[in-house]
Structures are given as structure tokens and as C-alpha cells.
Amino acid sequence: MSHPSNVGPASGIVRENSMKHFDQFPAPVRAAIANARFDWAVAAWLKAFKSGHVRTGDLVAHIENNDKIETAKTRFKAWGGDYPILPGEIAHIPLTKKKGRGR
Fold it and tell me: What one-character-per-residue DSSP string does 67-96 give?
């Protein structure tokens, strides 16, 4: 299963189209988006869903996980590492490997 990697919190014109995209998802995905802490740009998720690359349950889990990661990043930026972790939140942000420079 592949997940769109270019999805992040929405801004500007993306928000205007979000409701059109939102309405095309099945109810469980709409609930995950509606209950998220951030306004997500959902066009890439919709494209992956419609093309059959991701199933409903997997997409719900992906949205919830992305929301938890963004919450942890925001909490760390705002309050630092000593701020208490609330129930249901992740304690750390998964590290990603940076691409090296080609030589």
C-alpha cells in the first residue's frame, strides 16, 4: 500500500477545494478528517483512494497517524521536549532519513 507523501496541513486555495474532496470520501474517512486537529490538504489522499492504492481503513489509520505526528511536532516547537504528553499523543516524532547530496 502506498500513501501520498506530499500531504500536509492545508492553507489558502487548498482549503477552498477541500470540501469538494471531503464529500467524496466514505464516512469513516470523513470522520477521521473531521476529528483531526489540523486542516489537512486531502486531494492526494482522494487520488490514492479513488485509484485503489489505499483502502478505507488504511487511509483512516494514515490520517490519524499523520495528525499525531503533526501534533507532536507542533507541541515540541511551541513548548519544548519537557511538555507533558497527553493521553493518545505520541511521545516522539519518528525520525526520517535525509537524502544525501549527490556527488
Answer: HHHHHHHHHHHHH-TTSPPPTTS-SSPPP-
Q: Does the residue 92 lie in any domain?
A: yes
pLDDT tens digits, residue range 33-43?
999 988 888 88
Q: Domain for residue 1, yes or no?
A: no
Read off the C-alpha cell for 81.
Answer: 521536549
Q: What is the residue whose three cell numbers read 473531521?
A: 34
Residue 91 maps to a domain: yes
pLDDT, tens digit (0-9, with 9 covering 90-100), for 68-91 = 888 888 888 888 777 777 777 777
Separation CA 35–CA 31 (nearest Å): 6
Number of domains composing the chain: 1
Domain with 67, as residue range(s), is 7-103
E strand intervals along 25-83: none
